[in-house]
Design brief:
The protein is of the alpha+beta class and 115 residues long. It has one domain: Nuclear Transport Factor 2, Chain: A. It is globular and about 35 Å long.
């Protein structure tokens, strides 16, 4: 029985990882397409980010391309769990920089993006 429960846990964990990876790609693709409202909608509810400020900031030097360089799981009892990502972004100005983003697993099995 313990083996079966462990196997079910691994399947759920794999699905959460896949959804988290999908969520980070959706977020970055929305930014790349200039769909700042859509990207803003993927932020976690607890983000204290004003939508107008977010959209203005993103539009100043927009992302033209990105590559996820690394990802890994994180978690603790206080903050929950999710995945962290190291993403190399190239901006419209030609500047290339590394951004660190995280996703957080929600109780309903979905994920959201945090900064």
């Amino acid at each position: 029985m313990a083996l079966a429960c462990g196997g079910a846990y691994l399947i759920i964990e794999d699905r959460a990882r896949e959804r988290s990876d999908q969520m980070i790609r959706e977020y970055l693709n929305a930014l790349t397409r200039g769909e700042y409202g859509a990207a803003y909608g993927l932020l976690c509810d607890n983000e204290d980010v004003d939508r107008a400020w977010f959209e203005s900031k993103q539009g100043r030097d927009p992302i033209r391309s990105f590559v996820v360089e690394r990802s890994g799981d994180w978690g603790n009892l206080m903050d929950g769990s999710g995945r962290g990502y190291s993403v190399r972004v190239t901006l419209a100005s030609g500047i290339s920089t590394v951004e660190y983003l995280t996703t957080k697993y929600a109780s309903d099995g979905d994920s959201c993006v945090t900064h």
